[in-house]
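Margin note from the TA: students keep mixing up input and output lines. Inputs are the sequences; the output is the structure of the whole complex. Example:
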Amino acid sequence: MKEVVEGSHAVSEAVRLARVQVMSAYPITPQTHIVEALSEYCADGRMAARFICVESEHSAMAAVIGAASGGVRTFTATSSHGLALMHELLHWASAARLPIVMAEVNRALGPGWNIWMDQTDSLAQRDTGWIQLYCEDGQEVLDTTLLAFRLAESASLPVMVVLDAFFLSHTYEPVDIPDQASVDRFLPAFQPRIQLDTQDPFALSQMAPPGCYMEMRHDIEAGMRRIPEHYTAAEEAFASVFGRRYGMLEAYRCEDADIILAMAGTAVSTSRQVVDDLRERGEKVGVLKLRMFRPFPAALLASLAGDARKIAVLDRNFCFGVGGIFAQEIRAALYLMDSRPPVYSYIAGLGGRDVTPETIEEIYVRTKQSERPAPESVWIGLDPAACPVCRTD
Amino acid sequence: MRISRSNVSTEINKTGSWRFVRPGYDEKTAPCSNACPVGQDIARIEMLMGQGMFPAAWETILRENPFPAVCGRVCFHPCERVCNRGEMDSAVGIHHLERFVGDLAIERAYALPHPFYGDEAETDRRATGGKTVAIGGAGPAGLAAAYFLARLGHTCDIYEADSEPGGVLRWGIPWYRLPEDVLKAEISRIVDMGVKIYCQKPITRDFMARAREQYDAVFLGCGYGRSLPLWIPGEEKVLNGLAYLHDIRGGDNTCTGGRAAVIGGGNTAIDVARSLTRLGVEPILVYRRRRQDMPAFDHEVEMALAEGVQLMPLVAPVRIDGGDGGMVLTLQRMRTTRMETAGGRCRVEPDGDRTETLMVDQVYSAIGAEPGENWLFPPEHQPGQLRMSHCILWEHPDARLPVVFGGDLTTPVKSVTDAVASGKQAAMALDTRFRHGGKAIPERLGACRVGDGTALSMEIYLSGRRKTRNPAIVPFSALNTDYFAPAERQAPPVLSPETRCGSFEEVEGAYGRDAAVQEASRCFNCGICNDCDNCRLFCPEVAIYIDGTRCINLDYCKGCGICVVECPRNAMTLEEEAS
């Protein structure tokens, strides 16, 4: 049934329907609404789950790692500094092959203190062994969260469902909230591959000496390599129950495009509109929606965008000293391909600044007018007069 | 899919091999116990009180002091001045708690268990019988000496000059500070132990000459019964403050009216002045120094001023004229100098020839006291004397038996609790003298010290549990105050100044049961384990276990020190491993 819900609550509803058994979280804006609703579901009996209150995000992840090691379905949510604080435990979760699902609301890192949209927090965790899926709207948030449990459990790897701060987490949209029976059909009860047992005690995450550590890492990579296969199967099952599918990447009007705009998150929706407008004016432009970031679907990317003349990447994140992170990944993915269009890197919308149709059109125009990409990322919309009181030089 | 997994227990990992510092249970001394003249185990007493275990708390006091209900009222509680809780909000109301449990014991007729110190030696002593000691004076020192000697298995006879026992408690301290039935109850407990008290039978020189026929030792705690003279003209018109208090306690409380000058700044002067207000007299305290230099306890001075007692500081009487129709007191104005006395009081000198006069109906003198008879004072520079902190033991050459001088005769501070301390010290000294000879006294008694002060513990003397206590004193900085929430000190009810001026009714009321438990729970229990279990719960190696008592499994204790840090009360210590 369709209901008008906040993006945060689209996550909460999916977690409830997924019959998660143990949750643990520490509140942080703009994630708080997600776990607030879940704690109420636990308190009023709508969920038969334990909500473990902890003193930090580090402990929240530790708690769900413990619970997942006990063989139950687990969930947590965080954002920004909370995710940064979890960093060590993110490695513990993935290398222990625990299918934990986490909602991560993209928020800027301080200082200066900023609670708004920015992708650097989640992208900075790219080497932790977590699958990362970026969402565009409320329906996709709910669907991706459900899908995440099935994907995580089939691959024995943890999944991060990523959504934009405020633009998505705090925006109300009509979302089709499925009934429990349909969800149960898609997502049967968790069958753990690892389960601590007090009757037959053993210890996990013991010392791994040089003689086996590399093989264990290689196993994780092997698991990651099979994600496209698991993902496709899970989406197939999802589509058969709910009739919706998203793909690892989505190409919108890219078939004959000379320039493809690539980005993740809610800016995709804005770009779709800009592309429609530009198409009406005869421009040959499309949008590549980046949905799966880890593992990075390089082959799919090459097949969807390899024929374009140029690819323009909009990064709402930044890696200091290098540039936009999605742009780096796309360049690296195309390097071994036969056809590799030049990748233009643009930075916009950091720390919650709006990415408007004008921003996107400016990126398109600049790309179209440049013969080759600048060696460094191009920052769009910088205001030299901003924050005069903060300047110290 | 490979994951690291182990089927053997982590017990194979003996993390104790990493250790270079070792935690241990190490109970220490609370600053209050160190400051208490009788060294009461206050941290444990308050722990038991906080748990509502009143009989056990009372027994813990009785191990070191036979007078909780009395001392809870009249002791000037130096314990509270050093209470670590005072650094956080306000000191624990230790004396109120002592009084509460002392009164409860009287009301419920608590009996002393036996063996009292949880020690077999005590039982043996009773069975084998002891020596017989004569005690001169049934004041706090003599009664305490008898109590502790009786505990040690000796027989005591007390000889008292007055008509009833109690000394200063019975005759010097007014009812409004110490009701008579409270005193009687605590004295009768000592009598019930088999101590005989002979009243109106003072110890005399003749008695001393023949004491050896009947006794193995004598304790002299006859107190300071004689007021010091003023040495001024007209002195014969002055009334004796101590005698006046004695008369009131004897039942002579006729209202005389008018104005009276009370000369002095000590507790006796305050007691006289406050008694006078209750009999309708307007008292004026005449004191040669400033208010802050008065030796009387500050609390008492405050109560007196609230009751309308006037204070004339920096004046010294030089002569008294007149008679029954009214007296003229000539006073020399005094001024302060930059010098101080040894006790930290300001030295004063006459302010030129400035004098003034004060018209009053009576003059009371309370400038100090001395022993009733000179021979009761131990002679100085005589061989065979052992001078201790609170008493002097003299192998009396004429009486040919050991004589201990105690109480006001020898205590450094003339207080009730110091008198009790001297009785306890005398009991330990004589017991050691009887059993091991006089030479053994310094070492034996030295081993019974509480903290780094002069107080001695009978529990330690009898090898009780307290013997293992580290004498190191717990400073505030050693506590983990994160575990203690701020809490207001409980205040007992106090009669209003208007009400108390009209009668000798007790001024300060007692805590109720709930207030007592709440107040005792404010105590940090500095240095002692109250079984909070933090050490065990926080140990990351699960190396602490309970087997009767808490134990540390050194195979797994890696010396991280978390237990020591999480101990709220410094009952644990981390020490370097012996290399």
